[in-house]
């Protein structure tokens, strides 16, 4: 019985470590999650076609922040070829099975590079795909 418990604990540790450098889907793009302690970073691994014109390339950072329990909080970015990335605060839960992260935040919209004064709420959903 001790051996079985030890084996289960090893597998659980390996599963947690696997998610520390793992691939996730977000809005048609494949993302890479990097974890360093509580710090979390989602980078584009394979950006969807429409993002290339906005300057997004493999390795472009979309989200950086922290995981506290089952909660992420940090900074997300929206991209523009004319104006560069715009940062805004986001936060949200991790699914109980640890395979989905949903963060939400409000940001101003732009017309060209000028802020319009209008505010929209963005929801970013990351769904686990595989170990990269």
TrEMBL record:
Does the record carry Signal as a key word? yes
Q: Where is the signal peptide?
A: 1-20
Q: Name the keywords, alphabetized.
A: Signal
Q: What is this protein called?
A: Prepilin-type processing-associated H-X9-DG domain-containing protein
In its UniProt entry, the species of origin is given as: Psychromarinibacter sediminicola
